[in-house]
């Protein structure tokens, strides 16, 4: 009876406000991913080789991209300005401060398989506005280790049946390509720079996430 009285004494608006806040937290990330998937622009990213033992463990796989290393970004337009601004503020990329890499679509549309990857053309500390239709900005952060840049699209999960199929395709492709990995990933990037994975091309074979 005492517990019931205590519960009854709590104003209903406080109870529903607290519950609503918790629900917002629960659904915020899935909602963001859904919004990005629906509204985002389709972009193709070139992958980089990773340790073959790290490629697929259990039900997950790990990928890195051409834009995943700081060395590949240093040649981009805007890098020097970004570095100078960070130095003036006493900040570094290693603290996880977000920045934006501007990607540009291939100049000549192609129907080849796998499709051509988009190229990084510039980098900015602030999210660019009014980009042309053939460009999009993706948000990145330096990882705590300072070795890789994280775009939130590095780890994917597959059911076991699909995992085995992909492993077989990788082994066959590597045998034909002498160890090279001509893999590209299809992602969606929204106006805020958020990205979600859509599919993976292994040679001419396409796998949807």
TrEMBL record:
Protein name: Membrane-anchored protein
């Amino acid at each position: 009876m005492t517990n019931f009285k205590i519960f009854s004494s709590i104003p209903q608006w406080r109870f529903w406000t607290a519950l609503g806040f918790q629900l917002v937290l629960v659904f915020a990330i899935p909602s963001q991913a859904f919004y990005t998937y629906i509204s985002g622009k389709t972009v193709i990213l070139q992958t980089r080789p990773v340790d073959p033992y790290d490629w697929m463990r259990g039900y997950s796989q790990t990928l890195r991209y051409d834009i995943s290393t700081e060395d590949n970004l240093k040649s981009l337009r805007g890098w020097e300005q970004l570095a100078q601004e960070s130095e003036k503020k006493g900040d570094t990329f290693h603290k996880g401060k977000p920045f934006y890499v501007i990607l540009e679509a291939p100049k000549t549309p192609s129907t080849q398989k796998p499709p051509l990857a988009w190229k990084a053309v510039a980098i900015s500390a602030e999210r660019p506005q009014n980009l042309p239709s053939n460009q999009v900005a993706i948000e990145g952060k330096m990882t705590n280790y300072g070795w890789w840049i994280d775009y939130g699209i590095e780890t994917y999960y597959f059911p076991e049946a699909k995992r085995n199929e992909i492993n077989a395709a990788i082994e066959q492709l590597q045998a034909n390509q002498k160890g090279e990995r001509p893999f590209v990933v299809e992602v969606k990037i929204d106006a805020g720079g958020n990205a979600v994975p859509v599919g993976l091309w292994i040679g001419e074979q396409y796998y949807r996430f």
